[in-house]
Amino acid sequence: MISIWEQETFLAPQDIIIAGSGFNGLWAAFYLKKKSPKLRITILEGGPIPTGASTRNAGFACFGSLSELMYDGATMGTEKMQQLVELRYKGLQRIPKQFKPSQIDFDLCGGYELFGPAHNPTADKLDADIAYINTLLQDITGSKSTFKRTDKKLESFGFGHTTHLVKNKLEGYLHPGKLLQCLLQTVQSMGVQVLNGFAIKSFEHKGHSLDVHTENGYSFTTAQLLVCTNAFAKTLMPDADIVPTRGQVLLTSPIDGLQWKGTFHSDEGYYYFRNLGNRVLLGGARNKDLAGEQSFVFATTDTIQDELERYLAEVVLPQHAGQYSIERRWSGIMAMGSEKTPIVGEVQPRVFASVRMSGMGVALAPVMAQQVADMLLA
Predict the structure, then answer these.
(1) 298-335, pLDDT tens digit by residue?
(2) Bridge partners of residue 165, in order along the sequence
(3) Can you list the residues of the chain whose pLDDT is less than 70?
(4) Which is nearest to 314 in space by CA: 275, 269, 282?
(5) Nearest to 104 by CA among 117, 116, 87, 92
(6) Given this model, what pLDDT does residue 194 score?
(7) Residues 81, 72: contact at Cβ < 8 Å?
(8) 73-109: string of b/e by CB count within 10 Å (b at 16+)?
(9) How far, in Å, CA of 164 to CA of 22, rounded?
(10) What is the phi-psi region of residue 250: left when phi exceeds 0, alpha when psi lies from -120 to 50, beta otherwise?
(11) Calpha distance 282→330 (Å, rounded)
(12) What is the pLDDT of residue 46?
């Protein structure tokens, strides 16, 4: 039996309960409190810290590589691809407006895409693709040359098996852990209650409210529920078009004389790497085992890690053989689906969702969270 003190404070009825304290949940709480400061909001987080993908990604501040956008345009349609890029781009612009870049290690240092033997367009074809995508993105980014071929940098970067390099001057990176901490501190200062270790097991409608039940036996009453657990939303939304997808990462030891700085992609975004100081953070390769990487399990596998190490040695660091070791390996769980457009809106009476960020939660969350906040307050 809970005490009266607990019932009147931690477990008191809420206006809005948010499931998940990752980027989506925290940004949503921020916008809700900003627009309606008197709202009683509690965020219930299942883990001791946010896990999922928010604290386990590569820390990219990106909106899509050239080959990825070409693929998306061909499969989703040009208009949907442009809409998705616009959402990502707007989200990235909001982050440094809310937090000082120095607080979150935010740096628009420029990003690149590598083209090698496996996907090796001619220079003329690549230039045509660049011109095409630049035209489509001009009204979004305000630049006539978002992408630019820059093969001349290849020699200084020292990459192997690479014939062309395309730069995106509007891309960069940040520290996702520091961004989450800043968001958490901000919403708590606005009066949002955040409770860790409270994974939501189920909810039920009771008149004009909802009873929310957690796995540790506690129950809450709320007027509205917002699900922001991304891939793990499948527990509360079993019919949703969400596929949990694991992304694996490794991090090297410090490397003397690392020749490059920035974010890098290849193979339609399936491989991605960046510098973290003078270490290399490399992730991806899930296209080597797409079925096996559809998983809720936080783990690393030999299949993916061996491929990442091969790519690291042959493409990223061929000039540094024997000069580094692998310091750390981890994985995060993303939410994919039959399409890349996020699921945002009311999914049941008084139950809303902002999920399925398709691996772009850093960029999408600031915008999608504001959209769903507006819906909750409508």
Answers:
(1) 999 999 999 999 999 999 999 999 999 999 999 999 99
(2) 114
(3) none
(4) 282
(5) 92
(6) 98
(7) yes
(8) beebeeeebbebbbbbbbbbebbbeebeeeebbbbbe
(9) 36
(10) beta
(11) 11
(12) 95
Taking the C-alpha atoms of residue 357 and residue 340, their distance in angstroms, rounded to an integer, is 7
> Residue 333 has what pLDDT?
96
For tokens 């990106």, name the residue: 62
- Phi and psi angles of residue 325, each rounded to the nearest 5 degrees, phi first: -130, 170
**Both structure tokens of 135:** 């035209």
Q: Are 182 and 342 in contact (CB under 8 A)?
A: no
* Residue 5 zone, left/alpha/beta (φ > 0; ψ -120 to 50; rest): alpha
Round to whole Å and give the CA distance between 289 and 301.
10
Q: Is 67 helix (H, G, I), strand (E, B) or coil?
A: helix
| Strands 193-196 vs 41-45: parallel, antiparallel or unpaired | parallel
The amino acid occupying position 329 is: R
CA gap 286, 283 in Å, rounded:
9
| Integer Cα distance of 41 and 373 in angstroms | 12
Classified as helix, coil or strand, 206 is strand
